């Protein structure tokens, strides 16, 4: 580099007139790096505390000598109904799963509805029926709630927020910072099903086999895994941002490297085809009924065996390992024997041009 | 998945790599033209698996990257109009213009839609006669037939509210520009398989002959790419300079004639500016006169588009294969996918984005 070039760079603090957007962009909600930056820059400086700073899917709190897990999540999905589920089922399972990933037994939910003027009551009834069925399936009670109605055009038919409380009935801590070199990475089944089910319905893509959302409550699966072993370091349900984002969060929180093997990550053939067609990497596509975990290597077989006996873990397998190399980074061994970084994605998932 | 999985087979790739090693006697520099190939190479880790004698340089074949700043600025100005619904392929939304990008126009209230097919834009114009629907028609020869078809369709439907902002570019003139440059170091080319699916490869035959350079029409999967490299190396080692077709499951010598006819009906060849490279004569398409009513540039004359590139960005040299992304002082520091200084950091086909996404750990892993 020439000295002039070096000076050029030093003086170059804002080379484009607009570098930081003064407004919220869609990419801020995509679960990738922009979402992480929003959290770091806007929320944590104001609210940071030991519970929040863990950045787990749930907060684990001590109340009256009991450990409880507490979480909240909001659901905005278009279309409201898609193959394999709907916004109601998603709203229950999403919060149930956030509690389950902390090793808690989900007990009680709240639900807040923001309804847009004009939403057909039949649609609302269908959503509520589905929520009720999902609560029953997950063994939780909806114990408090709220509804608001906004003007037509001020919302997208129906937004739902749910919060949940669960009980930890064991003494262990499942948290993103618990991974250690030598541990292995496990995954409960195929990735990308939910995101591609919604996206192909939204884009009007028809495939020979319908892609169905995998939305499901995972608390039962987690409970059976915890019965089998105490060596479960952390669990995540790789929702928005997909498997890639979940693994990056774990690698960063634990300051370890994670290595996964491309050929061991299961992908449903129809999801694979849809991703190829749209130019989207399935590693970044949302799941709503899968978990990825980091467990002690010695117990991996027992845990996988127990998972496979549960209907939601029948395709459970080891997909990689935790390493001291490349800390805070996820690297994938490719099918052909090469390697590449699996990073957080930058903003919105954009389909390629050709 | 058929026609995909077979071409990602580790043992088959290793077999071809072995053949390359056995053929090689000295170093060679080969350019893959297409950004899709660049991404496949880096995403699969192929560049690390090739013998060291093979130097791959990444070509200008990323349509997002080479779309000139003026076109982006014009798009941003049109998209910001309250009467316009601006329709684009997804990749273009994040490309920085002089002062903004389309994502920011959208967040400020601009009506911007992403589609997979330009015909969706025509349908939108039909459904919303009260809106001016403008489609951003960019890309190489690959996207030209569909874009031309959209104009034909709009013409058949006599749509008054559909127009296209055309910034199409062509591969062969870019190859010629690179080859005729005095400091060219590319000794063979992997031509872009999908461009040739449309256009065939007859246009490349005079280039191979005149510049004594092997050109191998190549696909996008790892096995395609190593095969393309293998064919190129065999030619180089034997002193041959021909056009060969590795991507025979998709490409014929004459190309797709009906698609070419649609292109010829709607578009004519023109001079075109390439971002980072400059003007290349007869290197683009514009709308023919009978379709001029669909030309968004004429419908929305934008005055005073002032363009300014960030001075530190070396995207021009990257696009010409003269520098690698990591050679840029701004790479990964001042320039990242969230705050791109140059288009190659933006697109899923851009070389800088590929290196940023898949290769940064090398510094860490090798530290």
Could you describe the 3D structure shown?
The complex is a heterodimer of chains A (354) and B (367). With 354 residues, chain A is of the alpha+beta class. Chain A folds into two domains: 56-167, 60s Ribosomal Protein L30, Chain: A, CATH 3.30.1330; 176-341, PurM-like C-terminal domain (Phosphoribosyl-aminoimidazole Synthetase, Chain A, domain 2, Alpha-Beta Complex). Helices cover 31% and strands 23% of the residues of chain A. Chain A has a seven-stranded mixed beta sheet with strand order 9-11-8-12-10-13-14. Chain B is of the alpha/beta class and 367 residues long. Chain B folds into three domains: 5-62 and 171-245, HypD, alpha/beta domain 1 (Rossmann fold), CATH 3.40.50.11750; 65-170 and 255-299, HypD, alpha/beta domain 2 (Rossmann fold), CATH 3.40.50.11740; 315-365, no CATH class. Chain B contains 17 helices and eleven strands. In chain B, strand 10 and strand 11 form a beta hairpin. The interface between A and B is large, with 50 and 65 residues.
Describe the structure in brief:
The complex is a heterodimer of chains A (354) and B (367). Chain A is α+β, with helices and mostly antiparallel strands.
């Amino acid at each position: 580099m020439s000295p002039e070039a070096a000076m050029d760079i030093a003086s170059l603090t804002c080379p484009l007139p607009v570098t930081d957007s003064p407004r919220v962009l869609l990419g801020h909600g995509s679960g990738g790096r922009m979402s992480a930056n929003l959290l770091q820059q806007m929320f944590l400086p104001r609210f940071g505390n030991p519970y929040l700073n863990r950045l787990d899917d749930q907060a684990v709190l001590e109340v009256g000598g009991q450990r409880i897990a507490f979480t909240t999540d909001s659901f905005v999905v278009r279309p409201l109904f898609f193959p394999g589920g709907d916004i109601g089922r998603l709203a229950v399972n999403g919060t149930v799963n956030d509690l389950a990933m902390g090793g808690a037994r989900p007990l009680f939910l709240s639900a807040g509805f923001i309804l847009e003027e004009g939403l057909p009551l039949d649609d609302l009834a269908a959503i509520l029926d589905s929520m009720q069925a999902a609560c029953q399936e997950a063994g939780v009670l909806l114990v408090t709630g709220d509804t608001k109605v906004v003007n037509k055009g001020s919302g997208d038919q129906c937004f739902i927020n749910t919060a949940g409380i669960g009980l930890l009935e064991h003494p262990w801590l499942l948290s993103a910072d618990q991974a250690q070199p030598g541990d292995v990475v496990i995954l409960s089944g195929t990735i990308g099903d939910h995101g591609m089910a919604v996206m192909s319905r939204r884009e009007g893509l028809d495939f020979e086999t319908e892609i169905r959302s995998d939305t499901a409550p995972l608390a039962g699966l987690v409970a059976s895994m915890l019965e089998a072993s105490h060596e479960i370091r952390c669990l995540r349900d790789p929702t928005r941002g997909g498997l890639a984002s979940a693994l990056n969060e774990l690698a960063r929180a634990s300051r370890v490297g994670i290595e996964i093997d491309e050929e061991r990550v299961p992908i449903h053939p129809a999801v694979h085809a849809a991703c190829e067609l749209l130019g989207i990497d399935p590693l970044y596509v949302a799941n709503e009924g899968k978990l990825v975990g980091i467990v002690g290597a010695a117990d991996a077989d027992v845990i996988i065996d127990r998972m496979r006996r549960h209907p939601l873990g029948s395709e459970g397998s080891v997909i990689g390992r935790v390493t001291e190399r490349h800390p805070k980074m996820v690297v994938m061994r490719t099918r052909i024997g090469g390697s590449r970084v699996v990073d957080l994605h930058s903003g919105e998932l954009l389909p390629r041009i050709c | 998945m058929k026609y995909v999985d077979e071409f990602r087979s580790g043992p088959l790739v290793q077999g071809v790599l072995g053949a390359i090693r056995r053929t090689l006697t000295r170093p060679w520099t080969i350019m893959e033209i297409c950004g899709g190939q660049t991404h496949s190479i880096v995403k699969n880790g192929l560049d690390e698996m090739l013998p060291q004698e093979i130097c791959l340089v990444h070509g200008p074949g990323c349509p997002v990257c080479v779309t000139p700043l003026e076109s982006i600025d014009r798009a941003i100005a049109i998209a910001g109009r309250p009467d316009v619904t601006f329709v684009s392929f997804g990749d273009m939304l994040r490309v920085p213009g002089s002062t903004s990008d389309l994502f920011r126009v959208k967040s400020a209230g601009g009506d911007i839609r992403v589609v997979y097919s330009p015909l969706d834009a025509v349908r939108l114009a039909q459904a919303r006669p009260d809106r001016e629907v403008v489609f951003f028609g960019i890309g190489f020869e690959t996207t030209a037939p569909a874009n031309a078809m959209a104009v034909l369709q709009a013409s058949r439907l006599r749509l008054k509210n559909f127009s296209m902002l055309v910034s199409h570019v062509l591969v062969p003139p870019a190859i010629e520009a690179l080859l005729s440059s005095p400091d060219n170091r590319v000794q063979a080319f992997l031509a872009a398989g999908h461009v040739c699916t449309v256009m065939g490869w007859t246009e490349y035959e005079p280039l191979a002959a005149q510049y004594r350079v092997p050109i191998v029409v190549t696909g996008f999967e790892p096995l395609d790419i190593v095969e393309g490299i293998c064919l190129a190396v065999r030619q180089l080692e034997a002193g041959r300079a021909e056009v060969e077709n590795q991507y025979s499951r998709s490409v014929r010598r004459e190309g797709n004639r009906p698609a070419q006819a649609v292109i010829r009906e709607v578009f004519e060849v023109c001079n075109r500016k390439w971002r980072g490279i400059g003007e290349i004569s007869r290197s683009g398409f514009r709308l023919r006169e009978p379709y001029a009513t669909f030309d968004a540039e004429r419908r929305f004359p934008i005055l005073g588009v002032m363009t300014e590139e960030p001075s530190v960005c070396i995207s021009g040299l990257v696009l010409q294969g003269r520098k690698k992304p990591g050679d840029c002082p701004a790479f990964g520091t001042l320039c990242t996918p969230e705050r791109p200084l140059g288009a190659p950091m933006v697109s899923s086909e851009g070389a800088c984005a590929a290196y940023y996404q898949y290769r940064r750990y090398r510094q860490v892993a090798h530290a």
